[in-house]
Write the structure tokens for this entry.
Amino acid sequence: MDKHIIDKAKRIFEDYLSRQGSRKTPERFSVIDELYALPQDEHIDVENLFLKMRNKGYTISRATIYNTLDLLVECGLAVKHQFKDKVALYEQALTYKHHDHHVCNQCRKIREFSDARINDIKEAMGKSLDSKITSHSLVLYGDCVIEDCENLKLG
Amino acid sequence: MDKHIIDKAKRIFEDYLSRQGSRKTPERFSVIDELYALPQDEHIDVENLFLKMRNKGYTISRATIYNTLDLLVECGLAVKHQFKDKVALYEQALTYKHHDHHVCNQCRKIREFSDARINDIKEAMGKSLDSKITSHSLVLYGDCVIEDCENLKLG
DNA sequence: TTACATGCAAACCCTTTGCAATCGT
DNA sequence: ACGATTGCAAAGGGTTTGCATGTAA
């Protein structure tokens, strides 16, 4: 809950909306409030964001959350992930340093990591495939050895 | 259409089904026939596999294709991919040498590549995350510079 | 024979869309 | 006031499920 970061995010969003000629609605900013109220490395899906906001008294619809998250992704304030599960997960991106993810086969816990060698791969493959690489997705799946993995196991 | 490979795949599938005490139905083997009739590096989704088989006169249902593909993935005869699109894509896996994928942002063309450094990353991260890495997914997205990219662009 | 597999269609789930009502600008 | 945005509910699209029928063993 870093007030400074949230304010910065809102300023960026305002600029973006102005540039696009889009409206600055309270609903849109409330999504920033909620996304950035989460721990920096937490991933949340639309349904949980919706429930969380409804529980707090916001009157926002799923449709608006989907719409707003798209905008946030477009202007670099959110990152969307699609792991093996069917739901998309979002995380805040303002303080984002690029990282990749490890997902436990059992408990589905998501952990982040960073390894510079991915950049070497991108550079080398960009050249050999004659493509301008714009982004990538790297997910390692494994059985994590943390002691509460089994307990967290999902259906 | 390498008859030898298809036969080998069927033998592996037979063994697998026997071991599981599952039935060796013609529908199941027909999916191997179709999947392995494709070019080795081609990716196909369930709907197209279904249509292709129906057009050839097979009477198979989507449900059976889904079911069979799951079995093929389990016994290592097929690999399932979930790129950014919503449909899952499958490719044959018998002659599979691990490779990763490049997907063009524009034309969605999928190309394969292989870079040994991914193994270094898996090994290093497995250690530092204290996890037994079982698999990974690496997709590079980029704008490919092949001349017909634009023409292939999808809606 | 008999339990597993199949085909079909309905159900599911996440996401998108259509539309009347609302609300920035 | 005008038109973009909203909330709601319905529609979409891929996948899964339920069930009566068929069939491998």
The domain at 100-154 of chain B is CATH 3.30.1490.190 (Dna Ligase; domain 1).
